[in-house]
Automatic annotation (TrEMBL):
Cross-referenced Gene3D superfamilies: 2.80.10.50, Glycosidases
PROSITE patterns registered for this protein in UniProt: GLYCOSYL_HYDROL_F5
GO biological process, one term: actin filament bundle assembly
UniProt xrefs under CDD domains: beta-trefoil_FSCN-like
Protein name: Mannan endo-1,4-beta-mannosidase
One cellular-component annotation, GO: cytoplasm
Signal peptide region: 1-27
Domain DUF7910: 58-193
Domain Glycoside hydrolase family: 273-434
Pfam families: Cellulase, DUF7910
Length: 454
């Protein structure tokens, strides 16, 4: 259950296969490629297609959700004293990390609650709720009962069958048996404030349960991307796709729970759709997506890349091996020398004029200048003769500019195509389909915001 959204994305393995379907493309493309990511296909990301989650009961209480509980009687928040290892109390007027609890979802109504320090809520022998358990079992399992008329009002039932209540602000006890009228005078009623929700592959599988998740995902894999999409990409001037896959695809069709099997078969289809010529459509394998600085250390990353490179080379001498730079690293060139030792290596960088406060107030021209000047020099700093080749594996024509015109978007897309076109391996837009228009390359192409020169 610790494999929540971040880890799923973090451990994603990326494959690239060429997407040329038309006869005029006689062979798999060599670099530099013009590609698009098939995000949200074999690895779920809720923001790309939220409707996939619609059939999950209590879909706002997915695994990993962070909740805060306010006692309606006291008007104070529950808190893990000392962040964990002690009692749960109810004396806080404001909520931050010690007052925030992470859900481990067992099913739609049963959960474990994890505190800031990593421990779990449990009920001790005198009926107090304490955060001392280091792993969850039956006495760490609680049922959440919501008020139909306003589902933010909840009661929490412990494994002894009784509801938790706040009799004094210094304790939370599992000893209320009577029914509720959900009013502000019931000490077992809390307002649950949902402060963060994760919506990834783990959450969709765990949320639906294996039977329904298999149905939902099998349908998604065969309908979200099909052969017509490959025709569209090819005729639009794209010649490769970057496909995120989860680490569990390695044990398909029997991945560890809660993941469901079948994504490997869907991936095989992509190779069939991409193939046009008598050669493998597998262009490259990316060993890891977006390792995050400073949590991922440089020595551990190099060891992983070395082992991964050797593993790929045992199977193919021709596929490029892509190594992702650490996200947020202060030294973009930190892998350059290391990667230069591997024949067929590629260094992947992701360029977004987002996710950093310095872009918050950029206007149209400042965004364009930043790409033209700063990104150009960033890319030049890691582009050398020989290996590694350079790859802008993710970019998007989206920004923090409000009220930008179509012409503004066109300029922003074009300058990125021009600058990232200097990457020696090529670039890939994030992503092909997305409910958010600018993030959907399909929408951007069909509506004339992006045009590619091939
Ligand atoms: C249960 O926890 C409460 C609150 O920390 C504490 O006062 C009580 O002594 C504990 N009971 C036992 C048997 O440890
Ligand atoms: C949910 O999980 C709890 C705890 O394991 C179990 O007692 C309950 O029967 C489950 N509910 C459903 C609907 O499966
Ligand atoms: C539900 O309860 C919350 C918390 O008391 C309140 O803020 C919200 O307005 C209520 N929603 C409705 C629809 O009454
Ligand atoms: C699966 O979905 C069906 C129909 O939507 C629903 O009735 C059923 O309760 C779901 N099963 C589980 C285990 O959630
Ligand atoms: C692909 O899916 C679209 C609908 O999303 C459909 O219109 C099209 O016919 C499908 N193409 C193939 C080859 O199945
Ligand atoms: C593909 O190429 C290989 C090696 O050149 C050859 O043996 C094989 O017959 C070719 N297959 C097809 C379908 O052309
Ligand atoms: C590159 O390989 C050489 C020879 O194996 C080795 O001495 C050197 O330390 C390596 N350089 C880096 C940066 O890993
Ligand atoms: C862009 O590069 C210029 C020239 O090196 C530098 O002065 C400027 O601070 C950079 N802009 C940002 C926002 O980092």
């Amino acid at each position: 259950m610790s494999n929540t959204g971040t880890i799923i994305v973090g451990l994603a393995l990326l494959l690239l296969c060429s997407s040329g379907l038309l006869p005029r493309l006689a062979a798999a493309p060599g670099p530099p490629i013009q590609a698009v990511n098939l995000g949200g296909w074999l690895v779920t990301e809720g923001w790309i297609m939220p409707s996939l989650f619609d059939g999950i009961p209590n879909k706002d209480l997915l695994d990993g959700t962070k909740l805060q509980f306010k006692s309606v009687v006291q008007n104070t928040y529950l808190a893990a004293n000392q962040g964990g290892g002690a009692a749960i109390v109810a004396d806080r007027t404001q909520a931050s990390s010690w007052e925030t609890f992470r859900l481990w979802r067992i099913n739609a109504t049963s959960f474990n609650f994890r505190v800031f320090g990593g421990q779990f809520w449990s009920v001790n022998s005198t009926g107090a709720v304490v955060a001392t358990a280091t792993s969850p079992g039956p006495s760490e399992t609680f049922q959440m009962v919501r008020w139909d008329a306003n589902t933010t009002r909840v009661r929490i039932r412990a494994s002894n069958g009784l509801f938790l209540q706040v009799k004094t602000m210094q304790s939370l006890t599992a000893d209320r048996g009577v029914a509720t009228d959900w009013s502000d005078s019931d000490p077992s009623v809390f307002v649950a404030n949902n402060v963060d929700i994760l919506r990834g592959e783990y959450q969709i599988c765990n949320g639906y349960g294996i039977t329904n998740a298999t149905k939902v995902l099998t349908n998604h894999w065969s309908t979200y991307i099909n052969e017509s999409d490959f025709s569209f990409m090819s005729s639009s001037g794209l010649n490769a796709v970057r496909i995120p896959v989860g680490w569990w695809i390695a044990s398909d069709p029997n991945p560890p729970l809660p993941f469901v099997g079948g994504s490997l078969k869907a991936l095989d289809n992509a190779f069939v759709w991409a193939q046009y010529a008598n050669r493998s459509s597998l262009l490259a394998i990316e060993l890891l997506n977006e390792p995050l600085y400073p949590g991922v250390t440089l020595p551990s990353l190099k060891k992983y890349y070395q082992d991964g490179y050797n593993a790929v080379r045992r199977r193919t001498s021709t596929a490029y091996v892509i190594m992702s730079n650490r996200i947020a690293t202060p030294d973009q060139t930190e892998l350059l020398q290391f990667a230069s030792n591997f024949s067929g290596s590629v260094l992947d960088v992701h360029y977004y004029n987002l996710f950093n406060s310095k872009f918050d107030n950029f206007n149209v021209q400042e965004n364009i200048d930043y790409v033209q000047n700063n990104r150009s020099s960033d890319l030049a700093a890691i582009t050398t003769k020989g290996f590694p080749l350079t790859f802008v594996g993710e970019w998007v024509a989206e920004w923090n500019v409000r009220g930008a015109s179509k012409a503004d978007y066109q300029k922003f897309a074009q300058v990125q195509e021009d600058v990232y076109g200097r990457a020696t391996f090529g670039w890939a837009y994030w992503t092909l389909k997305n409910v958010n228009k600018a993030w959907s390359m399909e929408w951007m192409i069909k509506n004339g915001y992006i045009s590619l020169t091939s």
